[in-house]
Fold these 3 entries.
Entry 1:
Amino acid sequence: MAANRFNGYTDYGVGVGLRIPHYDHIFAEKPSVGWFEIISENYMVDGGQPLAMLDRILEQYRVVQHGVSLYFGSADRLNQEHLRRLKALTRRTKTPWVSDHLCWGSVDGTYSHDLLPLPYTWEAVRKTAANIREAQEFLELPVAVENVSSYAEFHCSEMTEWEFLNEVAERADCGILLDVNNIYVSSWNHGFDPLEYVNAVEAERVAQIHIAGHSKFEKYRLDTHDHPVLDPVWKLYRRAVERCGRTATLLEWDDRIPSFDEVHNEALKANRYLPQEMAGVSLAGAVSDDAA
Amino acid sequence: MMLLELQRRMLGDLLEPLEGKQPPEARAGEYMTDSARLEAGERLAIYRRSYWARVRDAVAEDYPALRRVVGGPRFGELLDAYLQAHPSRSWTLRNLSRALPEWLAAHAQFAGRNWRAAVDVARLEWAYIESFDAASLAPLDAEAVARLGPESRLRLQPHLRLLALESSHIEERVLAAHREDLSAGPKPGAGAGQGRIGRGEIRRGRRYLAVHRVAGVVYYRSLDAGMFGVLRALQGGEMEEGGTLVEGVERFLQSNRQQGGVEARMESLRETLALAAQLGWLCMGESLS
């Protein structure tokens, strides 16, 4: 089920985010890694070291592109220069799918460079789905939208976040990048049951799953990507793969980045929950909570 | 509230300076809800603090030497004033700092007594950023250079930047500041306590520099006035498409009429073309792939 049209019918297993502090280790040690996720915008430049390093990675590894600033939910039209550069990069990386966030971040041409929460309204459903469709048609690749961590909600919302996600994905006919850490962070901040969210997501649309660590503050949880994955997030992950099957999974670690081996080993813990590739038997659900 | 209206309202609130007299948090409840633990204003504040931290860090990371010239506290004020005047208009944070050198040239009050040097340092640091990830074209080899004729369409390497500065020998201090920041850690300003560039260290004096990239690394190279004039003329307004060699020569001769005779200028032209060819700066005027 998890190799589907939203991830190009691939079975990539567990991957790691490609980060500059790990370049030397990767080139020297050539670790065995299922795939690397890159932040598209870091490589949407005309030349120099960023593209030279990427080309070296592409010689040896599979790469999937993840974006942070298309802003599908912005009331503005999608930035056409951004789309053109993104498409050029997809030709270079041969990424089987492209992901970005279910959020907004710019208006009237001014950018926040943040993943801002959307009001869950029917108007936002229509606008966001139309933008995703436009991106998908232009890029000629499947697009997966990622649920974001959020810290605010709006009076004008007309549905839950998971209802909004499903509506957008269905109308855009796109995939979902299910970030179970973001679900946990938002559930804590807004007071909903994260399992209800995971259980409601259209499993057949899930192209990829993100796991990550977050930070705890007295009154809220913050999506900082600077910790190992916490137990409640592993529990959500286990439930997600029970529903979605063996799905490409990526650990995000973006700040206070430890050694490559530490990041990779943390990511590989996902294999405890993923149905294994060759066994032909689903192992999902066979791991106790203690394993995390 | 319609989507566009909500987004304009929220982004406007985020862009309000943190030290402003009328914090927008007081009015956030008009469109944001409270949660069980946080009031609407506190929820907005999470985003507003995050916005300002992100954009300040992005600009600071681009200008480690400028921070050393103007000093830490003043640099913070400079960042806030610049970001209020120039919020991001690009999908990439990489472009957020682009207007800073020009803005600083028009706002001396944010640089103090070192204003002219600060502007030069900012221009040099921005040239470094542009050169770092600009396109690179296949340079002409010696054989191709020998075949050049008047109608040959030429362009200079897209990663080459030419600067005429008012302060001499600032490039060493800029390089040192970048090295200190790199070795101090990934956070912008991590090396800020080191190597304050004092006024006495910067001398006035015309200085011509080329900023360019070799094997992925950005270098500075001093130029004499003649070479700078030739390269500027070749670069001219034709950077994107490439002009003919004869057009470049004419621009050079026109723009340097007061400087020496034709023979001397032609000699400068020949020397510069030879140097440019040797350094891989000469390319055919082709479109970028």
Entry 2:
Amino acid sequence: MVEHSYNLYLLLSAILFTIGAIGVITRRNGIIVFMCIELMLNAANLAFISATGIQKALEGMIFVFFVMTVAAAEAAVGLAIFVMIFRLKGTISVDEMNLLKG
Amino acid sequence: MAEIVFKWIVFFIASILSIFSSVMMVTRKNPVHSALWLVVTFISLAVLYFLLNATFIAISQVIVYAGAIMMLFLFVIMLIHLEKGPEEIGKMTVSRIFAVVLTVLLFVEILVGVYFYRAWTVKPEPMPFGDPKTVGKLLYTKYLFPFEIASVLLLVGIIGAVVLAKRRKM
């Protein structure tokens, strides 16, 4: 039965997490790096939901709810920071972000 | 029996679609196309959540991720004219290949973790049903305090975004 094959869901979660990690490492555009981080968060959410099925406890879904809350706050603040950096430097390439370098 | 076959078909379509669209998301040059492919990924993940009986999470996935967060991303991309990114894609530098190899190693590590997790040997049991009533009851009784903390976090996020994005007067 499909709702019992939690291993497939964990496998899919691992694949999506890896794709997101490859994007974070290889892309230079700050917004796309940010979107890849959102994809990794979603892969972790999928693992949480399958763990809900394995453990038969609803706490996984509560956790996913809080992850979504944090992701929303993170997106708001992070994109505001990107707008600031773009105003300051005229680019959002992650290679150019060296403002904190001493 | 027909229902089981139907669920398998939905599972395979949704999972293949999510993998395909996330690969497209990572490889597109234009950030707007990337964001739209990411919306496709989020919606196919919502379908998978429905298959796992997590209806509340699936609905909030569509509303919060595919609706609110991606709207914010598209808005910022169009606000700062990023359609021509600072990007050179397809150039295979040594560091890039090394990074991909490292990440694939990470994937193998996760696979080993999944393999040795007891999920392979656990007796299959039906998924608990996470409809809005059940999840909401749990949120408002046992997890009331974390829920309130999350609302404070959202308030802080709003204030932080406004303060950061405000144009400074010189």
Entry 3:
Amino acid sequence: MTEPLLEARNIYKRFGGVHALENVTFRLDAGEVVALAGDNGAGKSTLIKIISGVFPPDEGELRYQGEPVALGNPQDARRRGIETIYQDLALADNLDVGANIFLGREPMRRVFGVPVMDRRRMRAEAAHALEALDIGLDRLDRPVRALSGGQRQCIAIGRAIHWNARVLIMDEPTAALGVPEQRRVIALIRSLKLSGVGVIFISHNLADIFDVSDRIVVLRRGVNVGERPTREANADEIVRLMVGG
Amino acid sequence: MSVAMAEVAKPRHAAWSAWLAAGRAWLFLGALVIGFELWSRLSFGATFIFNASNVRSIAVFATAPLLLAIGQTFVIISGGIDLSVGFTMGLAAVVASQVMNGTSGTLGDFGSLLAGVAAAGLVAVVPGVVNGLLIARLRVPPFIGTLGMYGVARGVAYLVAGGTTVPVDNRILSFLGNGTIGAVPVVVLVTALAMLGLHYLLSQTRFGQYVYAIGGSRQASLRAGIDVGGVTVRLYILSALSAAVGGVLYAGRFSAGAAQAGEPLLLDSIAAVVIGGASLFGGSGTLVGTLIGALIVAVIQYGLVFINVEPFWQFVAVGVVIIISVLVDQSQRKSGGRVDD
């Protein structure tokens, strides 16, 4: 078996007297979409936060690209290519698409020896990056405030990919979106898969989970209670695993 | 200018609504000038605007609030506000005067001018840094942090001045304040240079971009790895320094430093920024807009004097214009929702 892209081995996390995670093992391969399912309080977000560097596990090991890693903070995780996409927190509404994709890494050029921001290049490369992911936007010079929720989600994802994210964590990426918008995001996740990105997908929407994931991992009360290839799973079984019984 | 405008554009109608906002300010300026011109012709049979001395006076009038407004524009775009600039300006004026008086015997006019300017700059950095740290690190709301600094700078300025104005006699300084090069007053030239430099900083550099980004979304800026705290501290230092330049020029114009030099200018400078199209919610605004805003304030003030209205009406007029500008901004915000496809 090849080395997984990301692996969490025997993770324990306790908050006070509560076992948020108990001996959870989780793996993600390149080009794979893993859905993380579970009821509220199952430990999904605790696991995600450990993987994205928000806090360390009490016990257990995190391995990334074959090496053990200790993530100090979310910036650290992002630098290594593990990126979390947050609803609506990712973009500066008043800036255009190019400015958002390059935010914090603006390219400069010189005019008569004076450095100025290269807005044209930002737009051109942004257009290129979005095109590569098949994200169609008619105009890139508008503030992203003018775009729909789905388009903004796609831009946030496009930015992560443009800066070489290898693992994308998406927490309810389709929750606040209308149906056509959800399809757009789902289509994008499919194309990420093809380019070898590993995606961890958290959703309450079983239809989405079955639509896009390769494997479903079910957590219940901090324990990994089941893992099925999506092709072989059915919704009843997943729900049974989630609620127990 | 067009580049910066595109940056602040509002929902959907994006670019053109920014142009409209700028256009509105231009229209307002034009209407004011025409209004005063008509009044002046009908009442005194004299022209208001086709008079070089009036134009020069308006330009000089505009410089003092404009210098404060330059820094304030950056601060307001970032979503903050700096209420301390008026007394930072007074403090800088007083310190510059004291230092020049103390050193003119040994350093001569030029040397003591340099010493005075350096001292004014250094003393202004203190409230700038403190404001920035309060707001960036201790998360004090800008309104309260800088209001506290308003009191501190005010008290210290009066203490340094010994409770009175500090006369200063320096020929180069008074040339800066009152001289002309060709037909152009030196204060106007200095202000224009400051405008150009800071317009570049705001519209063409990463620092400027981060000011917009922080005003648009602090969270997104943090997540993009921007040093939000560092940018914020630098912003308030910039604001204090632009007030210090205003203070030195004030000392030049009146051959004296006064603690209360900038007191009435706080209102004018915020008015200039807001009339110029910057939103007090942060994320939008341009220095070109602020320039138009400062001209509007100057035309109102000078025009009212020119047509013999009691000077206290100036405060009323500028106050009303601020409130109207903010109302316009708010109503735009409410109407501007997101477009769903």
